[in-house]
From TrEMBL:
One of its GO terms (molecular function) is NADPH dehydrogenase activity. It comes from Amycolatopsis panacis. Residues 394-730 form the NADH:flavin oxidoreductase/NADH oxidase N-terminal domain. This is Bifunctional salicylyl-CoA 5-hydroxylase/oxidoreductase. The lineage of its organism: Bacteria, Bacillati, Actinomycetota, Actinomycetes, Pseudonocardiales. It comes from the Bacteria. PANTHER family: BLR3436 PROTEIN (PTHR43303:SF3), NADPH DEHYDROGENASE C23G7.10C-RELATED (PTHR43303). Residues 127-327 form the FAD-binding domain. Residues 746-783 are annotated as: Disordered.
Amino acid sequence: MRISVLGGGPAGLYFAVLAKQLNPAHEITVWERNAPDDTFGFGVVFSDETLGGIEHADAVVHEAMSREFARWDDIDVHYRGTVTTSGGHGFAAMSRKRLLAILQQRCRDLDVDVRFSTPAPDAAGLAAEYDLVVAADGVNSAVRTRFAEAFGPSVETRQCRYLWLGTDLVFDAFKFHVLETPHGIMQIHGYPYGRDGSTFILELHEQVWQRAFAPIAASGLGPGESDEKSIELIRELCADVLEGHRILANNSKWGTFGTVRCARWVHDNVVLLGDAAHTAHFSIGSGTKLAMEDALALAACLHEQPDVPEALAAYEEERRPVVASTQRAAQASLEWFENLAQYTHQEPAQFAFNLLTRSRRVTYDNLKLRDREFAAELDEWFAGSVGTTVAPPMFQPARIGPLELANRVVVSPMDMYSAVDGVPGEFHLVHLGGKALGGAGLVMTEMICVSEEGRITPGCPGLYTAEQEQAWQRIVDFVHRETPAKIGLQLGHSGRKGATKLMWEGMDDPLPEGGWEVCGPSPLPYSPKNQTPRELSIMDLSEIREQFVSAARAAARAGFDLLELHCAHGYLLSSFLSPLTNHRTDEYGGSPENRLRFPLEVFDAMRTAWPAQRPMTVRISATDWFPGGNGADEAVAIAQAFAEHGAAAIDVSTGQVVSEEQPKFGRSYQTPYADRIRNEVGRRYGTAVIAVGAISSYDDVNSLILAGRADLCAIGRSHLYDPQWTLHAAAEQDYPVAWPLPWAAGKRKPQTGRTDGPQPRLDLVRTGGHQTAHARWRPESAR
């Protein structure tokens, strides 16, 4: 096979090495526009998992790399005059220049034709001449641009600038320095890459850069030139960090990180590799790692599959989910550093934990395995901040206004669609009573509707008749009599999303018969298949407000401990808040303040009717997941408005406001919104923040709470799977909690057989029907 590789960086060279090694008959040409000894950057980082793959794939390359490694286990967080150290992280780094030299030599040994100082010919011509064209030509890939219509690339840039530098100070660990300067917060990412130097990256928000560096930053720098004026200021700002050592430049210019994504990586016989196909923020050290793992996978797929089309399809199928997972983690890390200033009120221990868990790949449990002493210190700090004894963070007590909760687990409101004429029945008693017996600190009802017309479906419960009130009181009395849990009621009105089928009959599908008129702020249907709502008049708004008040009084008589106003998910009050659904031109539409007016009027009226000693909370959709709708900035303003009106907690959900939404699902995908609201609003007003959304493990709950991203976590589907989720979480953590006495005999630690952390798998490459010594490494996450 004739293979043309465009780009002589780690991805291109390593692929050439592996492909030639697996099949010496391949004719491989590598085109590299730079000279052999030209290189940019300083050090590259590898995890132990990636190094294991390199070792199995090519022992010669691994052995040569091993002689160059700077290894470390510790991460030091320098913050507010304190150094917090966490160990057990297991990374290695080396000079990028030495890595390229090793790969170049290996290419020479294997007779790979590497053409330095030679720009590649046009990719279309190469594709016609060669069996395979591998585009490893970097983040600014000419091949990706040449075939942009086929690859479907996008580049997302964010709000931080960075300068990639080096220093002759050899760090003894991975270093994060938080610098509080007259211009604003800056951060340093530093790590050793050899016996004589370290990588030294300064990163800062665009606003800080404008104040500090914009007046002096050089422009129009030529090839190989560095921004010396900026570097001189960095020397001054980082004098304490550098301890008299030099800063080193290498074509060092200010950049804004761009996350590259492509809809497709393959076009005919052309394939993208490494940064040409995808990028991930440098704060998780993933660029060279991903590139070399790409090379491993592509070479193996070519060897295993019968032809090039099948090999390229297998490569993309295998690598895409791994890359997507890494990009999600990198994006979370990027955004954390972008918003670092919102955490600088935190104590050093919490700040360090927050930083270490920013990408969600390192967690509370994971840190306990890596560094038990550090984890124990965190537990002691958190217990001291609460004023209790040491316990897993989720089992520390919490308060929502005057309401005391035994722990920080909330059973999230979940619609059951099982009421008859709005009356909760035996099912609701078992459902909510069972969840309360299961150990959660707070159990929330589903959305209870304030009127018959305010129901979502015929199966939705209400609180607008005496019979409904009595049925709810029975459930509340059971929870209070039989469990230590508190029980809260979520009150709402369906608005334009009403008169639909039960969820399992067709979610959001309109009733074919027996429906009722729906209403909203504007005559805009939820989807083309749904009813067009009646636009509410001022008189209608007054009537609905009184329905909320009447239901609040009934909830108080029924004995609920907490009342939550549902202003999320596209129901009536949510649709007033969003510009996508509120097109009114009166005082209840238009500006954000006007769109808030009716929800705040309802909240204030309910607050007057609701007992002062019991808290009220609000659930909001922090983003509409659609252009032109509410986003994070608007969510902060909405949360602040409710906090100022006396909300004791903000329950932070997202979406379901418009049917055209484009949500970005994933593990704990909504928590960044809760995080920001807690640190910008909750801390200022003493308002608790509840995180919700794909939080399924007790490890995630502990991590979110200990990092200060939320005060409580609402768990939904996991409680449907396991009503005793909280009790089982305590058992798995060997934490003693009181079980209901009739269940005490079953109290034991489950034998789950669980292992912690990804377990690598070795797939042997087959040659001539026999398993060879050349092994193929696939990370666990690729399965």
